[in-house]
Every structure is written in structure tokens, then in C-alpha cells.
Design a protein that fits this description.
The complex is a heterodimer. Chain A is built from four helices and six strands. By secondary structure, chain A is of the alpha+beta class. The relative contact order of chain A is 0.10. Helix content of chain B is about 55%, strand content about 15%. Chain B has helices at about 1-5, 15-20, 30-40, 45-60, 80-100; strands spanning about 25, 65-70, 70-75. Chain B is globular, with a radius of gyration of 15 Å. The chains are: A alpha+beta, B alpha+beta. The interface between A and B is medium-sized, with 23 and 20 residues.
Chain lengths: ~170, ~110
Amino acid sequence: MLKINFFTLKEFETEQKWLEDMARQGWVLETSYLPCFYFFKKCKPQNLVYRYDFYTNPQQKQECIDMYEEYGWTNIHSMNDFLLFRHPAGQDIPEAFGNDEAKQEMIERIIKKKLGLILIMWMTMIAITIFNGYMVIQNHLAMTSIVITVLCCVIVGVLLISQYRDLKQIQKEF
Amino acid sequence: MGDVKKKYSPMPETAFYILYFLQKEDHGYSVSKQTEELTNGEVLLPPGTMYGTLAKMEKDGLIRAVRQENKRKLYLITELGQEILDQEIRRIRRLYANSKGEKYAED
């Protein structure tokens, strides 16, 4: 069964709870795709625990999976540097992160990586704008092209600022 | 070097237990079990914390990976790690003495 549900990065805990609710109703997650597609398989209603983790370095991916598996977690899939794990719930629900510090660190790592990508994008956009400006002066390009690139610069710039704000807010929250 | 020392003083409880048990060669899951046992279940080291802390400490040079046993990576404390651990133990002793209103005299 396909379900569409949208969660932002910061709502990963809400997303985990939703997946756990689905399991209680007899739906176990098979796989999911960004930004909002979840595929479930019918199962008997059960208590499952879902946890996300994130790795920064591709070499660490397997190490991270091995560590979780040793603790009895099952890796469901990985996407975009995220790993999703599942564990049958016992008397006490196992936690992936023992403290807020580790959780904060994970979120910070994600945002910093995103921030880096957006920054590169922004700098590329600025370079294109300057190049287009030059071409317009040389009469090789119409004025509209420069308007479009400037607009793109502004949009990416706003994205950059909002991500930076997110990072600052998270650093304050914990 | 000085920066790394400052970064781990004080260190989180979870980091302390990991560093403490890695004074002898061991892997993450075993350290987690020993910590749970020694603290009567008061300190838990779930996989996310364990994996994250090990990666950070290895990067900072407090521990190093010595060998691989099947899927398990075995770590051991480094000289720098030992120095940082000893310094943290002194700090905790001082804190304990002070908590009883006593001055801490190094032995």
C-alpha cells in the first residue's frame, strides 16, 4: 500500500511515531522514497520501534549498519545519507540515542551538510549571473536572462538564510 | 592537542565509560554491555550514541581501531586518550571530595 505523508527534517521523531502507529495497525514499512512516498506491507498488528540515523562519510555507512545490527536492529533501507532501522519493541523500548546531545549532533551534521550544498549552489548561481551580465554587456544575451539568474540567486540566498537560522535555532533548543 | 583536551573536559558520561573500557582492546557492543552491568543499567549506550562517539573519538585521536573481527571493529585507547581519561578521573575525584565539603588532595 502506498501512503503519502510529508515530514520535514526536524520532524523525524514525529515520522518515527507515525511509522510505529502504522505497525500497530498492521502495516510494516517496506521502503520509502523522498520526499513523501511510503510503501507498506500488511502484517499482524505489532509493536515496532523505528529509528533514523545519519552518517556523514560514505565509508562509515556499513560500520553504522553493523553496529545497529549487533544491537539487534534491522536496517530497512538507506537514502540520502539516512539509515532507517527497525526493532521489535520489548518491555523497554530501545533508544538509538542515549541523550539529547547525540541527537542534536546528528541534526547539526545533517543541516551543516545541507548548508554546504546550498552554499555551493549559491556561489555557482552568482558566477552564472556575473557571466550572463558580461554577455549582456557584450550584446550576446537578452536582458531577460540576467533577470532570471538574479531571481535564482535571491531564491537560493533565502534558502541559505533559512537553513542557517534552522541550525542556530537547533543549537539553542538543546 | 590542547583543544582536544579542553573539548573532553568535562566529558559526557557516555564518553567516559567508552574511553574507560577501551583501556583494553574491545568492540562497541561489548563496551555497552559492560557499562550497563557496571552501572546497574543506569548508563545505557545505544547504537547511535556508541557509533557516533567512537567515530568522534577516533577522529580526535583518543582511540584507534586495532583490528577487525568479523563485522566487529576493535578499538584501543591511545596515549592521548589515556592522558585525557586520567585527567577526567582527577576532575571527578576533586568533584567528589568537594561535594562532601572537603578539599581534594592529589595522591
